Structure formats: structure tokens, C-alpha cells
Amino acid sequence: MAKKEYAFYPGCSSQLRGSASNYLTSVNSMCQTLDIKMTQIPDWNCCGASIGYAGSGELARHVMNARNFALAETHLPGQDVVATCAACWLGARETKDKLDASSQLMAETNEALKEAGLQYKAQVGVRHMVEVLIEDIGYEGMAQPIVKPLAGLKIAGYVGCQTNRPFGIAGESFENPMYLDKLVETLGAEPLTKYEQKVTCCGGALAFSEPEKSQQQIKDIVESAYDHQADLIVTPCPLCQANVEIYQSEINKRHGTRLDMPVAYYSQLMAVAYGAKPKAAGLDGHVIAPKKLQDIAVKVVPAKK
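User: That's the sequence. What structure does it adopt?
Assistant: C-alpha cells below.
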């Protein structure tokens, strides 16, 4: 029996050949070590984060999320729904809060779900994977399986905006959340606690409509990491990871800069610290290779005396 069991909502970007497929690889490795059982919600659907605001209306977006909740209640009763994607978690949390607070919206949503033979009963919690790690496992619990401390790495913890507002992680400051810094320290690396860009938006929503504005925000995020002598940036958000990593080459062309800063997920740090090889930690899925993290991953774990 696993220590903890959850109804897992993986989200679209984590699927095979998706932009965050390496994120899911590292999460699976991390969870295996921590004895966390993540059971995918059967027949889950997109949360609507990308298209739900484009004209389909509020009800359709909430129905999409509520369908996932109802499936979890049916097939995985008593288990919280856990998302690894910040956008999925944000949208799902919003849906849960609004439906639980409005009997009219709940009734309208369930009327739509009736067409699929489903009903949302408001029996599930909705959580981000980071919440599970901090609240259910704890920093001491996360430290116990470490076999390769990440000593020598200087890491800029980039929280971004979607895991920080309006919900955030319980007990954390909106202006200066410390959970990524604490996690980095737990894994044996050096957190750059004065990194001032940690909650700046990466400009993901502007990437196509106003690329100059989006890329300026990314430039500030990356240059600040260099200013603080970071070896890499670490984030809990797939959109932040992709945006900040991929567009550095475009920024270099536009501004004549030489940005080449790796951007990794917290779960990749954990997987490596727990002994995972580069592929199992998803380190083979980057545009900018996190070489120093890869170097630690290939080290042989010393035999216990």
C-alpha cells in the first residue's frame, strides 16, 4: 500500500511528445521514490486553460473541469485531484471554488454533465503537486531518500504567477514565496533567496500577440539569474519552463545577447537527488541542457558502508 494515493490529472502538455513530457517523466520518478501513488483519472479531458477564455464562455470551461472531478469521484473516490501543471491547477481550483460557492452554477454544470451520465458532488479536493510535497510529505520527508545531494549548484527559484496568485501555496507570501528556496536547500543546493524575479510573469499569454513584450520579461528573468550567478532556473510551471527556455535564442537574435540559461523543474532536481539517471529525470528533453545537473545525475552513488 502506497503512503499516499491521489487522483492524477496530468494535463495535455505532459503527454507523449508534448512540451512538458519530460516533466511527467521526472514526476513519475520522484513519486516512485517517495511512495506516492498517482492514478490517472480515467478518460480525463483538457482543462480548457488555453481555449476556455477564447469565446466558449465560463460555463463550458467549468463543465470541462467538473467532468474531470466527477470522473475522479466515480473511479477514485476519496482521493484528491492533483495536477502538476500550474495552468491546469489554477483553472481547476477556480472551478471548484466557484461551483462550491454557487448552487446555480453547480446546477447548470451538472445539467450539462448529465448528458455524459455524470454528476459532480463536490467531494474532491484540488491540489498542485507542490502542495502535496509540502503539506503531505514535508521537507524532512523529501530529504530522507536523498542519495546525491545537489551540492555546488546555485539555483534561482522561479515561481512565476500561476502557482502564486490568486490561490498560492498555503502560508506563503504572494510577493516572496519561499517554498522553492526551501526545497532547493533541502536537496543540498544553494537557493538564491534574493533573486528578485521569482514571481514575475513570463509573458506566456503575450508570446504570440506581443512577442517583444513577452521576450523582454523573459530577458529580465534570465539576466537576473545571471546577475545572481545561478547555474540554472527551477520552476513548478510548464508554461514558464517552456517560455523562458525556448525564447532565449530569439532574445539573443533580437538583442545581441548570449543567454544560455537552463530552466528545469523542481521534480527533476528531486529525481536526480534521489538517484535517477538523466533519462529517468527527464533531462534529455531540454532545449538548453542543464549540464551541471546532468553531471550529478551520472555520478555513481557511493555504496553504503
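The first strand starts at residue 4 and ends at 9.
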